[in-house]
Amino acid sequence: MEKPRISYTALSAYERCPLSYRFQYVDGLAPEVTPHLVFGRAVHAALQWFYDRDVPVPPSLDELLLYLEGCWSREGFSSEEESHLFLEHARAVLSCFYRHNADSFRLPVAVEHRFELDMGDIWLTGVIDRVDRHDDGRYEVLDYKTNRRLPELSKLKEDLQLPIYQIACRQVFGINPAKLTFYFVVPNQRYSTRPLDEESLERVVARLRDVGSRIAQGEFPARPGRLCPWCDYYDICPEGKGSQDVESSFISRYRALLRRKKALERMIGELEEEMRALGLDFSGEEECLANPL
Ligand code: SF4
Predict the structure, then answer these.
(1) Which residue from 34, 107, 112, 136 puts its CA 20 to 30 A from 225's CA?
(2) How far is the CA of 222 from the centre of ligand 1 (A)?
(3) Index of the ligand 1 atom closest to the CA of residue 23
(4) Which domain range does residue 114 map to?
């Protein structure tokens, strides 16, 4: 098996329920697109665009809202009206963000920065929303959240996302951030914390490696619990009891995989057509895959 690729999202999915991780990351069954997912993606995209400038001058609020509308997707909404309501909410959230941040606008050190770190037995991957450098020379890592309200403090303190970004900042930019911040843009509240010490960081890395080795060994036990009814894979999970019996859960899962296979075949066909048009030769690729050595 290839070296596992662990991101913060993959780590939390595995720790919540290894079987749901398998459905999403191994079988490739994407979770359902929900209005909240569309909302979160569009707000993130607009904030990325807001800060991704060549000069330290922010765009106008009208331009920001126009950009938001351009990247809005109607997928996942039950009606035009629902999509409109969510879009209006996103406009209000970005307007509030603008009022609080446009005057102090400065160019960040990094915006929406993707990283992929070779940690030996795993790849550590992720995307850092923003890194700022303050006047005193200290760095702050920010991650935007689109939850309606802040989670409990105990949950925020235990969360590994910002410590993972701390590790990435050291290796990618060679900097030690002095502040790690979750920016909850809906209530416009920040939760900031100091970076972890060496010992705590080592514990984070050990946890990542532990999950990586379980994934590499194909350990995907179900971890049923009270949150099963809210799981994206409730209908196809033999443990989730969303399907009427074990047999129908297997059939649902089989159907879901067939749908995924069809989608992949379509995408491969489209890519082959593009490659043909460019005169690229891909005839030996299937053979290479069958005999990787
Ligand atoms: S329904 Fe429950 S046991 Fe099944 S994959 Fe989802 S969380 Fe895991």
Answers:
(1) 34
(2) 6
(3) 5
(4) 1-226
114 and 255 both lie in a single domain = no
Residue 212 is assigned to a structural domain of this protein: yes
pLDDT in tens, 200-221: 999 999 999 999 999 999 999 9
Give the Å distance between the CA of 226 and the centre of ligand 1.
10
Task: Tell me: do 254 and 164 sit in the same domain.
Answer: no
How far is Cα 188 from Cα 63, in angstroms, rounded to an integer? 21
Query: Quick check: helix, strand or coil at residue 244?
Result: coil
> Over the stretch 167-181, which tens digit does the pLDDT of each residue have?
999 999 999 999 999
Domain total of the chain:
2
In a domain, 238, yes or no: no
User: Is the backbone of residue 193 left (phi > 0), alpha (psi -120 to 50) or beta?
Assistant: beta
pLDDT tens digits, 243-280: 556 777 777 777 777 777 777 787 788 888 888 888 88
The pTM assigned to this predicted structure is: 0.83
CA distances from 188 to 3, 38, 59, 121 (A): 39, 19, 20, 39
Q: Ligand 1 centroid vs 23 CA: distance in angstroms?
A: 10
Pocket test for ligand 1, best of 27, 235, 239, 250 (most atoms within 8 A of CB): 239
